């Protein structure tokens, strides 16, 4: 299954998220993302689009 452009883009910053779901496993499945970061994702993209590592790192530190 090919990913759409929306699925390849971080829903927080708009940069590439390096999503690998179309290849079977995504890096994000091994990362615990704090709720306050997940809350930044718009409702229509929540649970459908990966957040990029840069945003996870940025908002985990702050």
Low-confidence blocks of residues: none
Q: Biggest β-sheet, characterized?
A: none
The number of E-state strands comes to 0
- In round numbers, the mean pLDDT is 86
Count of DSSP H/I helices: 2
Name the shape in a single word: globular
SSE diagram, text form:
Elements: H1 35-38, H2 53-61
What do these coordinates show?
With 62 residues, the protein is mainly alpha-helical. It has one domain. It has two helices and no strands. The longest helix has 9 residues.
In summary, what is this structure?
The chain has 62 residues and is mostly helical. The protein has helices at residues 35-38, 53-61.
Key features of this structure:
single chain; 62 residues; mainly alpha; 21% helix
């Amino acid at each position: 299954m090919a990913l759409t452009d929306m699925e390849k883009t971080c829903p927080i910053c708009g940069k590439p998220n390096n999503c690998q779901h179309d290849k079977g496993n995504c890096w994000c499945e091994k990362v615990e993302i704090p709720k306050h970061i997940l809350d930044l994702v718009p409702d229509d993209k929540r649970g459908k689009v990966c957040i990029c590592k840069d945003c996870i790192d940025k908002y985990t530190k702050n």
